[in-house]
Amino acid sequence: MRSIGRSIAVELARAGCDVVITGSGRSPDAFPADEKQAGWRDIDSVAEEIRALGRRALPVVNNVADPDAVAALADTVVREFGRVDFVINNAGAARAGDRVPVVDVDPAAWRKVIDVNLNGSFYMSQVFGRQLIAQGEGGTIINISSVGGKLMAPNTAAYAASKAGLHALTAAMAGEVGRYGIRVNAICPGIVSTSRLDDLSSEQWDAIINTYVPLKRAGAPAEIGSMVVYLCSTQVRGSAASSTAWMAGRSPGDSGLAPGRRMPRSCSDGESMYTSASQGVALVTGASRGVGRGVAEALGAAGMTVYLTGRSTTEGASRIGDTPLHGTLHDAAAAVTAAGGQGIAVPCDHADDAQVKALFARIANEHGRLDILVNNALCIDDSLIEPGPFWTKPLAQADMFGVGLRSNYVAAWHAAPLLIAAGRGLVAFTSSYGAGCYMHGPAYGAQKAGCDKMAADMAVDFEGSGVAAVSLWLGVQRTERTEIAARLRGDAYGDFMARSESPQFVGAGHPCAVARPRTFRAVRPHADRRRTRAALRRARRGRPRAADLAQYPGRAVRLPSGASELRSLR
Question: Which residue among 14, 219, 291, 348 has its CA within the 20 to 30 Å range from the CA of 101?
């Protein structure tokens, strides 16, 4: 009843899907006390919830660790519904005798965990992957993993190994089926309040929350369900098929519960993603075009009042070499208003502290609050994409440390009192996988790494305030600047555009972060050293490959979606 699987199924149904749900057929004697008291009937009860939402539901008792049973399941799904669009691998072995030191693990307990968590996901992905390919219309496979696969804590060897293996399976399969329009992603939740953790005492629970969750609240299953809905939505179609969405939860406690206590489902189930966002105020820096404009438009679509800053006030005044960059700050503000919000253009040079101070004074005077700050302004020199070592390029590349790093700190410093006064909010930094690999040279990498560190440390300082801080690792963005770069240097960057994503992809998550504030951190997969060195050589020669992007799929996102963005299972 208190489970991630139930919430995923219900959220998908709420978004317009017919849902096939599987379970192990556990005995009612094994149900927790609250489930027995409620008359819970496992997947049959979930099926009733789905039908109450007006969608078809098919509960099936199935053993995902049995490849023949999985094949039979696929036959049943296709026979009953004619197709499948989304496959969510959530089945997991129960906590049992595997949570002991490796030298004491019973081989049978080891095999059970690996068979269900890893082999089961493999069987499901293989069988249903074949069906998705045969249908020829793309689709989505999502593996529900865990940060345990990266943290690898003591006494969790079987669990950690199964989840680490699931990460590898996800990344490898994504690279294989992307050409069929099929996306493969893994979600790695942090600490989530489910019945699987009922074996922990109150003291153990409080210790875990207070030690590992800076914002003092466990995640809710419905929040994972919302992430699944987003990854199944059409909003993700522009993202790279090989990328993996990693999610590790840190949640501000706005539910009124005592620190460390479980949050009941009623605190999050069924509430609108945009309940708070529609009344909110946001500031997006560097929003004349590109990612900043895309984020601002998405916030406007959520009904927010959005302040946009930038320096482009005259059409064609900004250029890359001899090529003009189209779009102005006022055009972007008008687009926000057209999307359903209120766009307010504020010309501002973020290298000038006085202008930034005046900006926040205006926001305080006009609204008295701020819910979202998106630090996106960045001073980019035209030489950024040119080949060659850093000492052969203009010293102007170091300007990124002024507008792009220091400016982010200044904006967050002014924003913090307004965010805290609102009682909940978000500071977001637009970063890149370039923070963890060679990309565009040391200045760019240092600026992105600095954003990541700034977000992490600000999250600690915001502890207990209801304000979250995140750093978003963006993929290749389909912006005016990157499209010009692809035309000018198609030999080096043309392939990347095939894996590009729209700026609106990034923007879609910010309203949800306000409605259900939550902090996430990117988990960067370890890249093979030989591949990394090869990618480094290509980058230095100015001839990177699109495949190099797949080495760093880590991205910290939590993005919502609505029913209109899903194709129902027919």
Answer: 219
